[in-house]
């Protein structure tokens, strides 16, 4: 509407200007119309001035509007009488409405910025944002407190004050998580750090998110030791209690009421049989206790991984071939699939093979007396992680036992040692990986091994 009015105004002015010029040219040579020529000449000059003023004043208002938007100057006003004519009141009204809309949007954006800035400062997790030039863009209060540095510090100064922190951050891969220790005078902090990379307006930004998890780790360690000691005490007491009881019985058989030794000639055949049974039981319980302590020693003597680049398809094929006889014996339908032939991980092949063998053995035990027993072993890439997933349709695990299956010596099977999954978790931890178990009782069990991408 405004454009049509502007075009119409220009066309009318140009038309009148052309008509005036034609009239002036028509009577230009007639001396009797001198005053008429003079009037038309002045009219022509005014028409040219009016056209120029009309166009330039409109452009001036438009430029003022655009500059106000560019510089976010919302104090600029647009008067209905600034431009001549009623046709441009609508244009001025549109200008005012647009400026008011921008003003509201800007106020809302500023309000949101202040809100997020306040929330950013109040969060208890340290956050640092770095631009592509390694300059700190944002650093919240928790980050200053965790690193014990003043506000306004630069990354270069931080490198000199906290070199252990900045060195680890700069050396680690992007979009990764890791743990590191930070010593501040006499205090030791255990930091969990997450590095994410985002691109804003064409510029790469690194976001560091970190927090001190020392208390949480200590609490978990205390809980783990409590559970381990409870299990150790239970197993040792179960073995020693009958030993003590049988020893007392043997002493009663071999001793008189006054405590003097019994003569061999006075021992009956029944006494000798009781002694033999007691000694056999003591031997059995002692052997069981030795096996238990040997299993405990296995948990504490995992060798340091000798890592190398491993082709996932190759190690899956090797383990599958090794277990093929067990699958056939139990009539288990086994299926393996690696979706990328060149998928690799950096790990110790012997330890990872041991993990897969332990998991497959657990699946075979869960599939005993199960019809249409099946095991699938798949490997694929997901979100910069190599995942190896094992799934069976066996007996499953009770929901209330899932959070206990990684506790050393805890087993859901009567004959189980309870160290298999605990060993698997320790081995995965040594490879900066993780192991997770999902299960539905009587339907399935799924184990997911996660490795960093090589």
Please, what is the average pLDDT?
77
- Report the portion of residues in β strands: 15-25%
Query: What structural class results from the helix and strand content?
Result: alpha+beta
Strand order of the largest sheet: 2-1-5-4-3
**Main sheet properties:** 5 strands, antiparallel
Radius of gyration: 43 Å
Given the C-alpha coordinates, what overall shape results? elongated
> What is the number of domains?
4
Question: What order do the SSEs take from the amino end to the carboxyl end, as H and E?
Answer: HHHEEHHHEEEHHEHEEHEEHEE
Question: Helical percent range?
Answer: 40-55%
Count the strands?
A: 12
Provide the CATH architecture of the largest domain: 2-Layer Sandwich
* CATH topology (level 3) name of the largest domain: Heat Shock Protein 90
Poorly predicted regions are 80-84
Transmembrane segments: 7-28, 34-52
Catalytic activity: ATP + protein L-histidine = ADP + protein N-phospho-L-histidine
EC number: 2.7.13.3
Domain Histidine kinase: 231-454
Task: Give a structural overview.
This is histidine kinase. Residues 231-454 form the Histidine kinase domain. The chain crosses the membrane at residues 7-28, 34-52. This protein is an alpha+beta fold. The protein folds into 4 domains: 2-108, no CATH class; 123-212, Beta-Lactamase, CATH 3.30.450; 217-300; 308-452, Heat Shock Protein 90. 53% of the residues lie in helices and 20% in strands. The chain has 11 helices and 12 strands. The strands form 3 sheets. Strands 2-1-5-4-3 form a 5-stranded antiparallel β-sheet, sandwiched between helices. A hairpin with a 2-residue loop joins strand 3 and strand 4. Helix 9 (312-329) runs parallel beside helix 10 and helix 10 packs antiparallel against helix 11 (420-430).
